[in-house]
C-alpha cells in the first residue's frame, strides 16, 4: 500500500483550485499547505479546502517542514525559479506545464533535481489518463499496425486582453507553451522520439506571441504528425492516430478524453470508455505517489529527458517564427 504524502500547493489560481479538489479524491494524499503572494489569498484558499498551513510567501511554503511534495501552479514564466526554490528546500516537485520557458531553463531545473536526488515531473496530466494508457496498449500490441500519422488540434477563442497570461509575452504567452504542448507531447508519446524535421508557420498577434499555428513533424519512413493550435478559433480538439491496420480516434477533449473509438478494416467501430476520477489530475497525483513509493526521482511515463526534448522542439518552432520572450537573451 502507498504511504501518505503531504502536499503543498504553490499559487492559488484557477488550476490550483481544480488540483486541490482532486487531491481530496486520492486517499494517500494530504493537502497540508498552500503558498501565495499574500496572506489574505493563502487564508482564503486554505479555508476553502481546509488546509492547516497557510503561507504568505512561496519561500515559506518551500521551507514548511510538514510538506513532502509541492505542486507548482504559477504561469510557466515562473516555473524555473519556483522549481529551484522548492528543490533547494528539499521538496519533491510536480510542476505544471509548460515545464519552463525554454530548454535552457528546463535543463537547469532537471540538472539541479538530479543533483539533489529529488523527484520532479512535468505535470502533463494527459500522460496519466486512462485513455492514454489504453492508447499506448493498442499501439504496443500492434492492433492498428505501424503508426504512420498523428493528427491533433487544440484551439479556442481566448479573451483578447494583452495583459492576461495567454497573450502576455512576459509570461510566456502564446498557444505553443500553453496548449501546443499537449499535441506535441502526444506525438512524442506515440512515436517515442524527436521529429527529424519541423515544418511550421504561426500567426503572431499584436503582442508578438503566436495566436495560431500549423505544425508538421516528419519522422523516418514517411511517418508524420500534424498539429494545429489557436486562440482565435474554436477547434475540434480531438486526436486521431492512424496505423497500417486501422486508426484510433481520441474523443474531444483529447488531453483528458473519457473515451476512444477503434476503427479496424472490415470491422464495426469499437467504442472504448475510459472514465476519469475527478477532473483527471488524480491520475498524475497517483503517478507521483507510485514513483515516490518506489524511490524513483522521475516517471517512466513522463521522463525528464523527454521533457527536455519537448522543450527543445518548442524552442526550434519559435525560432522558425522569430518569437523570443523578453527574458530570453
Q: Which class of secondary structure composition applies to the elements? A: alpha/beta
**How many alpha or pi helices?**
9
Mean pLDDT: 97
- What's the end-to-end separation, in Å? 48 Å
Question: What share of the residues lie within helices?
Answer: 25-40%
Strand content is 15-25%
From the coordinates shown, what is the CATH architecture of the largest domain? 2-Layer Sandwich
What are the segments in which pLDDT stays under 50 over at least 5 consecutive residues? none
User: Using DSSP, what is the number of strands?
Assistant: 14
Q: What is the CATH topology classification name of the largest domain?
A: Dihydrodipicolinate Reductase, domain 2
- Under CATH, the homologous superfamily of the largest domain reads Dihydrodipicolinate Reductase, domain 2
| Top CATH class of the largest domain | Alpha Beta
Cα-atom radius of gyration: 20 Å
Number of domains: 2
Major sheet, described briefly?
A: 8 strands, mixed
State the assembly state of the protein chains: single chain
Q: How are helices and strands ordered from N to C? A: EHEHEHEHEHEHEHEEEEEEEHH
What strand order characterises the main sheet?
8-9-10-7-11-12-13-14
Shape field:
globular
Amino acid at each position: 500500500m502507498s504511504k501518505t504524502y503531504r502536499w503543498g500547493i504553490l499559487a492559488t489560481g484557477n488550476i490550483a483550485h481544480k488540483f486541490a479538489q482532486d487531491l481530496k479524491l486520492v486517499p494517500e494524499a494530504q493537502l497540508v499547505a498552500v503558498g501565495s503572494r499574500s496572506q489574505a489569498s493563502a487564508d482564503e484558499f486554505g479555508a476553502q479546502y481546509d488546509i492547516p498551513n497557510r503561507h504568505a510567501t512561496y519561500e515559506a511554503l518551500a521551507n514548511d517542514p510538514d510538506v513532502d511534495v509541492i505542486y507548482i501552479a504559477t504561469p510557466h514564466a515562473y516555473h524555473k525559479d519556483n522549481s529551484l526554490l522548492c528543490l533547494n528546500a528539499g521538496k519533491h516537485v510536480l510542476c505544471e506545464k509548460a515545464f519552463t520557458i525554454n530548454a535552457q531553463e528546463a535543463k537547469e531545473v532537471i540538472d539541479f533535481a538530479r543533483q539533489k536526488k529529488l523527484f520532479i515531473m512535468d505535470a502533463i496530466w494527459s500522460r496519466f489518463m486512462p485513455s492514454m494508457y489504453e492508447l499506448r496498449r493498442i499501439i504496443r500490441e500492434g492492433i492498428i499496425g505501424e503508426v504512420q500519422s498523428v493528427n491533433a488540434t487544440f484551439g479556442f477563442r481566448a479573451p483578447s486582453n494583452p495583459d492576461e497570461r495567454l497573450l502576455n509575452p512576459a509570461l510566456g504567452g502564446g498557444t505553443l507553451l500553453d496548449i501546443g504542448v499537449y499535441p506535441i507531447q502526444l506525438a512524442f508519446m506515440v512515436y517515442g522520439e524527436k521529429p527529424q524535421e519541423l515544418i511550421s508557420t504561426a500567426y503572431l498577434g499584436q503582442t508578438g506571441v503566436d495566436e495560431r499555428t500549423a505544425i508538421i513533424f516528419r519522422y523516418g519512413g514517411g511517418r508524420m504528425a500534424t498539429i494545429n493550435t489557436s486562440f482565435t478559433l474554436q477547434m475540434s480538439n480531438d486526436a486521431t492516430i492512424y496505423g497500417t491496420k486501422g486508426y484510433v480516434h481520441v474523443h474531444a477533449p483529447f488531453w483528458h478524453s473519457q473515451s476512444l473509438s477503434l476503427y479496424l478494416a472490415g470491422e464495426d467501430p469499437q467504442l472504448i470508455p475510459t472514465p476519469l476520477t475527478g477532473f483527471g489530475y488524480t491520475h498524475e497525483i497517483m503517478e507521483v505517489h507510485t514513483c515516490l513509493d518506489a524511490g524513483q526521482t522521475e516517471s517512466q511515463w513522463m521522463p525528464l529527458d523527454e521533457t527536455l526534448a519537448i522543450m527543445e522542439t518548442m524552442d526550434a518552432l519559435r525560432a522558425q517564427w522569430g518569437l523570443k520572450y523578453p527574458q530570453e537573451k
